[in-house]
Write a structure and sequence with these properties.
single chain; two-stranded antiparallel sheet; 2 strands
């Protein structure tokens, strides 16, 4: 028998989702509180809880995708391993190993120094910039948004 889903979300969950949608639309916590009839601190808490729930779901999905991708790489290695003496197969195995290392973040982040067209440091750019992946950038962005 198929699982029955409620026709309406619980009011509490709807409140969290509505607060998050308002925040995504650029509303301040004060404006969210006024629109929902709650205090500023309660509005902040609602948005924070909604973000935490989404982050947990995304992290869970990311682990599932990572596991599947690693299994695919394992299958490729298993299929290619018998022919590893062939230089082309050996190169393919090296690329697979490299891809696995990148997926597992085994490499140190790349360090880049920001300079102007003349090679001199840019004014006010006395900081090191690290190149990170999209997922990390989203996580950092969400943490910053949650703190605002």
């Amino acid at each position: 028998m198929p699982q029955q889903y409620p026709k309406r979300l619980p009011a509490r969950l709807e409140h969290h989702i509505h607060a998050l949608e308002l925040r995504k639309a650029g509303k301040t916590y004060l404006q969210i509180g006024q629109e929902l009839g709650i205090s500023l601190s309660c509005a902040r808490r609602l948005v924070k809880k909604a973000c935490e729930a989404l982050r947990g779901k995304r992290e869970e999905e990311a682990w599932e995708v990572l596991t599947l991708e690693l299994q695919r790489l394992d299958a490729q290695v298993e299929a290619l391993w018998p022919g590893r003496a062939d230089p082309q197969v050996a190169n393919a195995l090296i690329r697979i190993a490299d891809h696995r290392a990148k997926l597992l973040a085994l490499f140190a982040p790349a360090r880049h120094e920001v300079t102007g067209s003349n090679g001199e440091p840019l004014p006010g750019a006395n900081q090191t910039v690290y190149v990170i992946g999209t997922a990390e950038a989203q996580t950092i962005g969400e943490k910053l948004d949650a703190e605002v």
